[in-house]
Specification:
Length: 401
C-alpha cells in the first residue's frame, strides 16, 4: 500500500466505531471520506506556491508555515506545511486532518485535501481573502470596514459554526482555541472557524473530560485552565470573549485601558451592572443606530463568559437568540477569571417566557454540561501546574506537564 494511502487510512481510523448510530462500518466511512478528500500531488503545490516562496507566506503556527497558492484552474489555496522539527506540530497537523475529514459547513474553513511526499506532509485549504479577524480588528487601519452589520453577521456566523461542531457534525467537536485570530473572513465577510489543531472529539456519554490544558491566554474558560475540565461550555466562554472584543475593539488578553478592571470582561460587567454597558462600544460604531441590538449582544457575551459553566447557555440557544429581536434576558453573573474558584450555580430569579422558549434557561440540564463538583486534590495539582506554565512560542498556550 502506498504511503498516501496509508496516511489516509490513519486519518479515517478515529472515525471507526464498533457501533455507530447509522450502522456504517469502517469501509463505509472510508468511502465517504475518500469522496470528500483529494490527494494533491506535491509538484502541484510546489508550483502553486512558487516553491513555497517566502513572499507567499501567510503566517506560522506550532505546526509550521502556511503559504498562499494558486492552482492551474484558478482556485486560490492556503497550504499548511508541517515543520520537520515540530513534535507539537505533528500532533496538531494529524489532529486537524482527522477532525476536518468529514466537516462541511459554510462557517468552517474548508479542507480541500492533503499531500504526503516523503517526509513532507501538507494540508490544503480554501484561501480566505480577508484573512483573520484579529488583523482587521486589532492590527490595521481596516477596522473601520467592520461596521456593526458586519460585526453582527460575524457573531452570528461563529455561533452557527460552533453549533454545528457541538451538535450537528458526525461527533461533538470541541475546538478549544476559539479566538479572533482563528476566525477567517471571506470576500463576502462570512466568518470561518479555522485551526483545529487542538480540537477534540467529545464522547456523547460524558458530561466533561479531563485533558491537558492547551489554549490561548484571555480566551480559556476558568474551569478548564484551573482543573483541566473540558466541555462544550469552554468553547461558549471563548465565543463570549470574541463577542465582547468585536463590540469594544479591545483585546481581552492585553487589556490596558486606564479603568478599574482586571480585563475586558470585568470592565464590561461592571459597566453593565451600572446600566452603562454601551460605554464599552467601539467609537467607530457610534453612528450605527443599533443600540438595542448591541446591548443584547453585550449581554449575550457576558452570559457566555460567566464563571460557572452551568450558567452559560449552549450554542443552540445563543444561535436562536441572535435571530430574534432584542428582548429580555436573564441577568449574567460575574465573568470567570482563571485562578479564582466560582460558586455553585444559582438560577437567576428573573427570566422572560420568550427567553425560556428559545431553548430553556442558560442553566438548563444537558448531557454535555460540565459538572461543577471538584475535589481538592485535582484543584491543588492544577493550581500548582498553572503557577509556572510552559509557554508555546507560537500561540502563548500554557500547557500542563
Amino acid at each position: 500500500m502506498s504511503k498516501p494511502k496509508n496516511f489516509f487510512r490513519n486519518l479515517i481510523r478515529p472515525f471507526s466505531f464498533s457501533s455507530s448510530k447509522d450502522g456504517q462500518n469502517e469501509e463505509d466511512l472510508e468511502k465517504i471520506a475518500a469522496q470528500e478528500q483529494k490527494n494533491f500531488p506535491y509538484e502541484v503545490l510546489v508550483s502553486a506556491t512558487k516553491n513555497f516562496n517566502s513572499a507567499h507566506k501567510l503566517g506560522e503556527g506550532g505546526f509550521g508555515p502556511v503559504y498562499k497558492g494558486k492552482l492551474d484552474d484558478g482556485r486560490e489555496i492556503a497550504v499548511k506545511k508541517l515543520s520537520h522539527s515540530s513534535n507539537q506540530g505533528k500532533k496538531e497537523f494529524e489532529n486537524e486532518a482527522k477532525l476536518l475529514a468529514r466537516v462541511q459547513h459554510r462557517n468552517i474553513v474548508n479542507l480541500l485535501g492533503y499531500c504526503v511526499h516523503g517526509t513532507e506532509k501538507l494540508l490544503v485549504y480554501e484561501y480566505v481573502v480577508n484573512e483573520s479577524l484579529d488583523k482587521l480588528l486589532f492590527k490595521s487601519n481596516r477596522s473601520q470596514e467592520l461596521d456593526w452589520k458586519r460585526r453582527y453577521d460575524i457573531i452570528t456566523g461563529i455561533a452557527r459554526g460552533l453549533l454545528y461542531l457541538h451538535e450537528d457534525s458526525h461527533n461533538c467537536i470541541i475546538h478549544r482555541d476559539i479566538k479572533a485570530s482563528n476566525i477567517l473572513l471571506d470576500d463576502k465577510w462570512i466568518p470561518k472557524i479555522a485551526d483545529f489543531g487542538m480540537a477534540r472529539l467529545f464522547p456523547e456519554d460524558r458530561t466533561h473530560v479531563n485533558t491537558r490544558v492547551a489554549g490561548t491566554n484571555g480566551y480559556m474558560a476558568p474551569e478548564y485552565v484551573m482543573h483541566g475540565n473540558l466541555s462544550v461550555k469552554a468553547d461558549v466562554f471563548s465565543f463570549g470573549v470574541v463577542v465582547l472584543e468585536l463590540i469594544s475593539g479591545h483585546r481581552n488578553s492585553n487589556f490596558n485601558l486606564d479603568v478599574d478592571a482586571q480585563n475586558l470582561l470585568d470592565w464590561a460587567y461592571k459597566l453593565y451592572k451600572k446600566g452603562r454597558s454601551l460605554e464599552i462600544v467601539d467609537p467607530k460604531l457610534a453612528d450605527s443606530g443599533a443600540t438595542d441590538q448591541i446591548a443584547m449582544c453585550i449581554q449575550i457575551g457576558l452570559l457566555c463568559t460567566q464563571g460557572d459553566p452551568k450558567l452559560r447557555p449552549l450554542m443552540r440557544r445563543v444561535a436562536v437568540l441572535l435571530t430574534k429581536k432584542p428582548g429580555h434576558l436573564e441577568e449574567p453573573s460575574r465573568p470567570g477569571v482563571p485562578g479564582s474558584r466560582y460558586r455553585r450555580a444559582r438560577r437567576p430569579a428573573a427570566m422572560s417566557s420568550s427567553t425560556l422558549g428559545a431553548g430553556g434557561s442558560s442553566g438548563e440540564s444537558d448531557s454535555r454540561t460540565y459538572d461543577t463538583s471538584l475535589n481538592s486534590n485535582t484543584a491543588s495539582a492544577s493550581t500548582s501546574a498553572l503557577s509556572s506554565p510552559r509557554q508555546d512560542r507560537h500561540g502563548k498556550r500554557p500547557m500542563q506537564s
